[in-house]
Specification:
Layout (H helix, E strand, L loop, with lengths): L1 H17 L1 E13 L3 E8 L2 E7 L4 E11 L4 E12 L2 E8 L2 E21 L4 E24 L2 H6 L7 E12 L4 E11 L4 E11 L1 E17 L5 E8 L17 E5 L4 H12 L5 E5 L2 E3 L2 E11 L7
Parallel strand pairs: 2-6, 14-15
Antiparallel strand pairs: 1-4, 1-17, 2-3, 4-5, 5-7, 6-7, 7-8, 8-9, 8-10, 9-12, 10-11, 11-17, 12-13, 12-14, 12-16
């Protein structure tokens, strides 16, 4: 027992003696590392899938690292991802055009073990979570009226409706993995530059979504707006049965829809209720591989004090 206490005391003393804390700030760019389907491109030549990950984009990180020994430490990081635009729907066929992109605006946190292979070369491995943010979809659509529709509304033939809206998607609490290899360049005793390759492995299951902006205008063939705000957030277009382009003010994503729930939703659609819908959930990819550049400040350790 005395030997165990002696060993634990020795470990504690050596840890306190060496203990060193440092903070770092970095920025970088991440590329998609997951080839999951995000959407489709449709034109007169056919249909093409689009693949990628919402983890692609510009990131910013602030980290605090505490080294217990000259080799081993614990790292806590907070970051923000400004994701790149990813195509989820692109339609170019006669009388119909749709351009829908989605992008991540997400906050994350990670805790990792850090190991120094040499004085300058290190590795990190740990757990990653998304703690806030959204996946933002920005949609533009144009639909040219048929001659009968234009004549019925007293509009010149070739007139069209033009719709713009934004829908924010939120997800369940996810857990992923983060790994990195980095190299530090010493500038002074306390200041280092570093570059690192970093991998994120994480997916997000959708929880709900909400339309935050919506507007539909009627436009003449010469581009003149004949009627502004035909549909808005307060007056969404009525949904129709078997229309995949229906929009709902809010949507809840679930793993299972009972026959009774499906029937209730069909009845709501038939009644023209666009306030809410329920859909089956899906996982969307946030995995990425990127390069970060940053600066580290090391506080004086206890040994030097």
């Amino acid at each position: 027992m005395k030997q165990l206490i002696t060993v634990l005391a020795a470990i504690l003393i050596s840890t306190i003696t060496y203990g060193q804390f440092q903070i770092s700030a970095s920025t970088g760019y991440s590329m998609s590392s997951a080839g999951m389907k995000l959407g489709e491109k449709i034109n007169t030549s056919g249909i093409e899938n689009t693949y990628g990950s919402y983890g692609e984009g510009l990131n910013f990180q602030v980290r605090g690292t505490y080294y217990f020994t000259n080799k081993f430490g614990i790292d806590l990081a907070l970051g923000y991802l400004r994701g790149a635009d990813k195509t989820v729907s692109e339609v170019n066929i006669p009388n119909t055009s749709i351009d829908a992109i989605a992008r991540a605006r997400a906050f994350g946190a990670a805790t990792s073990m850090v190991y120094k292979f040499t004085d300058n070369f290190y590795g990190r491995l740990g757990a990653l979570v998304k703690v806030g943010g959204k996946t933002e979809a920005v949609v533009y659509s144009k639909s040219v009226f048929s001659d009968a529709q234009a004549d019925g509304q007293g509009l010149p033939r070739g007139s069209y409706s033009e719709t713009n809206y934004v829908e924010d998607y939120h997800g369940h609490f996810p857990l992923g993995v983060v790994a990195a290899l980095g190299y530090e360049i010493n500038l002074t005793n306390n200041l280092n530059l570093f570059v690192e390759a970093e991998y994120y492995g994480i997916s997000l299951k959708r929880k709900d979504s909400e339309i935050t902006e919506f507007n539909t205008d009627i436009v003449l063939p010469d581009g003149t707006v004949a009627k502004s705000g035909l549909y808005t957030l307060d007056n969404l277009p009525k949904p129709t049965t078997n229309n995949e382009n229906n929009v709902f003010l809010s949507t809840t994503y679930v793993d299972k829809i009972s026959p009774a729930e499906a029937q209730a939703q069909e009845q709501a659609i038939e009644a023209g209720d666009s306030s809410h819908s329920t859909e089956l959930s899906q996982k969307v990819p946030y995995s990425s591989f990127g390069i970060n550049f940053g600066i580290t400040y090391k506080f004086k350790n206890a040994a030097k004090k």
